[in-house]
């Protein structure tokens, strides 16, 4: 596996995987998420500005393509924020159901966390899936995250608004473990 910075030419694919693929229903839209609509293309572009896709502000935010055997199988992104200590909030989605269940998600998260520790000194990582996404919660626990019991209202006060009314807060503290996955810088 390898992570490489996402490019503007990846943006449409990343959007399709999020909003128009067979993994979309595990994140948004009915029947599991009638309360969270998939974003339109314009909404997606408003949420993910150009610097996610040109690696121009790695100190603040970036998206990476997850490659397996040279093929793009998903994306993982981060935003650096501050709540007493600097932390990175992460988000990840794979390209299709067929790509899930192979350990790519935890591997990509571990690689990104190691990269952020090495390059920016980040030692706190936050990820907030819905309680209705047990596969994601399990995958994040495999990557070393632990559930921190906190109401959604408290989470919003400390970490800003999340994506779901039933957000689960998972945190990984401390230096990321050594990881063999490569992170390319361009
Ligand atoms: C969430 C995601 C990134 C995880 O990556 P992944 O490579 O599929 O994760 P893994 O294969 O390592 O692990 C998934 C784990 O969840 C478990 N799992 C699968 N379905 C489950 C369920 N319904 N309930 C509980 N655990 C479940 C698997 O058994 C596996 O655990 P195990 O290795 O101990 O058996 C990926 O599945 C994905 O992109 N899903 C669709 C998009 C999404 O939900 N993104 C998260 C938004 S917050």
How are the secondary structure elements laid out?
Blueprint: E1 2-5, H1 11-19, H2 41-47, E2 61-68, E3 71-83, E4 85-94, H3 104-120, E5 124-127, H4 134-142, E6 146-147, H5 152-159, E7 170-173, E8 182-183
Parallel strand pairs: 1-8, 4-5
Antiparallel strand pairs: 1-2, 2-3, 3-4, 5-7, 6-7
Bound molecules: coenzyme A.
What can you tell me about this protein's structure?
This protein is α+β, with helices and mostly antiparallel strands and 186 residues long. Helix content is 27%, strand content 25%. Strands 6-7-5-4-3-2-1-8 form an eight-stranded mixed beta sheet. The radius of gyration is 15 Å and the shape is globular. The model has no long low-confidence stretch (mean pLDDT 95). It binds coenzyme A.
List key phrases describing it.
8 strands; Aminopeptidase; eight-stranded mixed sheet; binds coenzyme A
Give the gist of this structure.
The chain is an alpha+beta fold and 186 residues long.
* CATH architecture descriptor: 3-Layer(aba) Sandwich
Mean pLDDT: 95
CATH class: Alpha Beta
Low-confidence stretches: none
CATH homologous superfamily grouping = Gcn5-related N-acetyltransferase (GNAT)
By oligomeric state, this entry counts as: single chain
Please state the overall shape, judged from the principal axes of the Cα atoms.
Answer: globular
Cross-sheet strand order for the largest sheet? 6-7-5-4-3-2-1-8
